[in-house]
Here is the input.
Amino acid sequence: MSKKLDRILSPFRRLTKPADPQDLARSVLLLRLENIESLSQILDKTAVSHLIVQLSMTLGGAVRPCDPLQIVGPGLFAVVLRDRSERDAMQVGRRLHQLGQRTIPLGGRNVTPVLTGVLVHADAPDLPDVTLMTDNALRRMRGLPDSALGRMTMYAHDPALASGDLAATVSDAIRAGEFEAFFQPQQCCHSGRITGFEALARWNHPQRGLLPPGAFMPQMGDADHNSLTLVMLAQSMQALKAWDRAGFDVPTVSINISNCELSSRGFADCLLWELDRHEIAPARLVVEVLESVGPVTSNAETRVNLGKLAKAGCCIDLDDFGTGYASLDAIRQFGIHRIKIDRSFVTACDVDAGQQRMILAILALAERLGIAALAEGVETREEYAFLAQMGCDEVQGYAIARPMPLSATHDFLTAQATAASQLPQIAKRG
Here is the structure.
């Protein structure tokens, strides 16, 4: 078990009474407050603490005294349900899920919590210990796909997850052909055209199904990062060629590069050699680096690699903008072409005045520096409309499309082209 999970489970071990061996069934329900970060942007620490306490009282008061509720992490609640059938446990889970998402007046505002639920169930005779089931639920929560966020999901207890490790390393899975690039489109706010796709890694795990990065990234070492980047680069180049053959105008594809790769000697030369070998122009590749990659924190090899990539014509994005530090130094010294506004600033930007001020400040900075701005995590048409009105160059998120396999991008691009051709034309005078 990882040290992080052990720290999360330690208060649960101390406070949860021992499970009755006579129980006929047992379930562990986890409820995670998804929007705690965005709420922390608009509420002070005291109000956020009051929200957590109020949620725990509301949820704890809605279950039996023999079904204890514990706070096992920041914004993370656990409820142990005993002697309930799978169906009854799911009904309780859904009721608590709905109850916890009611609007709460707090700090002069009406706050609506967003909860994601995971329910792990087991039946007699071999009931796992409560701590093991909680660990199981935590691992299930960590591996949830994006589509499950904000919803309730039920699983049977899986002893195979108890070891805490996946059946193979990322490098082994890549050699077995289990990794696939999913592509999420990026759209221009001014013209509506697709300006590119971001390549996002997905693991087709033979036992656990399709895994998002959150399920395997924490276990990855430097060798895994290098292997993953190579396979994502190869699939991204294949995608560009496939789009070209089909007659689609997709200018760029973006890939994420980790700090350990940027600091590796010869990384830029290897990447540029791959582009040349596949006859892909460097300008069609967008390299996404984290905001923490700044002149102060990076080594000489990082600066050399980024310099070579920029000089060759690759575009460089500064990812998760606004959540790190040394951003201005990075923009100035590394030749950043575009900043990606973190989703924590985008959520509810159409209605929240605090979010709007942050967005306007970032867009003004980008304009003054002469670089483009792309907003991540745009989930509603209202957020999209506000960002477009404020002058944001591009957007990416569920409001446009979810990440999809390469085969699905063709239908998406065809539908986009058809919709664009059906727009009314403005007649020219004279």
Observations:
- Residues 233 and 271 are 8 Å apart (CA to CA).
